[in-house]
Amino acid sequence: MGLFGQKTKSVVGIDVSGSSVKAVELRGVSGRPQLVTYGFVDQTTEIVKSDAASAQVEAVRLIREVIKRARIVTTKAVAALPSFSVFSSVISLPEMSKKDLVSAVRWEAKKFVPMPLEEMILDWEVVEDRIKKKSVSEQKTEESKEPAPVTHRKDIRILLTAAPKALVERYVTIFKQAELQLIGLETEAFALERSLVGNDPSPVMVVDIGSRVTSIMIFQESIPILTRSIDMGGESITETIMKALNVDASRAEQFKRDFGLSMGQGSNEKIPKTIEFVTNSIINEIRYVLNIFRSQSEKPLDKIILSGGSAFLVSLPEYVSKVFQVKVFIGDPWARVSYPVDLKSVLQEIGPRLSVSIGLAMRDIV
């Protein structure tokens, strides 16, 4: 049984990461997303980096398991490709006919996509005042797109996204074997923008700290203008504490959650220093992305939003804010979702790690 008993049309957003599978089912009620149910399974998955049959079988098993645990009934699913596996760029082109635009976009794509275009699926959209976010679809190529008409403009901006065909096909196969109808496949950046940024037109950075990978994105007018990822996350912090204090994984994880970067009374001074050493890799990457943004934009960064399972690391928002002199918040992906009030404390605690799943499920509702 879901959290609400009434049956109605709904969509499940499924986030398959390197260490877990997370699912959130939402339905639209008067144009607002309403929580139906959610669930997650913490177990290693390798479907992004491995095309082995065993990895595919395991991914199918985990998706089925999370669907069963959460008692999800709908078969309509939206999934996300990891940011590090997709290439995105905002390009500017002179105003031209639709036919010429198709060729021009493909030509520009060759400049930033480090793989043969024959091996990629291109998805592009003309950017007006705000982007209308669309998915990377296994059924549509850039030749079938009908970009919005452009009038009275010298230049037009295009949001261009390229995903490996082999990876897209792998996802399609996995979800089919899991007996789900994959109605949308998009990038994590779009999902995070939808659940954490919303209609905010100001420049916003989202730092999504997962178990293995941290993705750093800057959005402006809902457009992901900069995206970078590093192989550093919550597991890296836990492993460093294990080595520094010679403790097992469960105890190191508890130390991480209890103390974080805090030097409060009763804390082991070595723990915050150890965590700070690891998080500096993330800090340096944030600094790099921020410097690129500042060199290209006259507008200042408005704020930084933290997401992912390690967003609640004690004193992390204060630490990042102090380093960059920017407002830093822990993202609330439930802000535009209706849910039972008695679940608020639980949902707020797990919200950051479900941000991608929530954004995916919101795709056809908001």
UniProtKB/TrEMBL annotation:
<dbReference type="InterPro" id="IPR003494">
    <property type="entry name" value="SHS2_FtsA"/>
</dbReference>
<dbReference type="GO" id="GO:0051301">
    <property type="term" value="P:cell division"/>
</dbReference>
<dbReference type="InterPro" id="IPR050696">
    <property type="entry name" value="FtsA/MreB"/>
</dbReference>
<feature type="domain" description="SHS2">
    <location>
        <begin position="11"/>
        <end position="196"/>
    </location>
</feature>
<protein>
    <recommendedName>
        <fullName>SHS2 domain-containing protein</fullName>
    </recommendedName>
</protein>
<dbReference type="InterPro" id="IPR043129">
    <property type="entry name" value="ATPase_NBD"/>
</dbReference>
<dbReference type="InterPro" id="IPR005883">
    <property type="entry name" value="PilM"/>
</dbReference>
<dbReference type="Pfam" id="PF11104">
    <property type="entry name" value="PilM_2"/>
</dbReference>
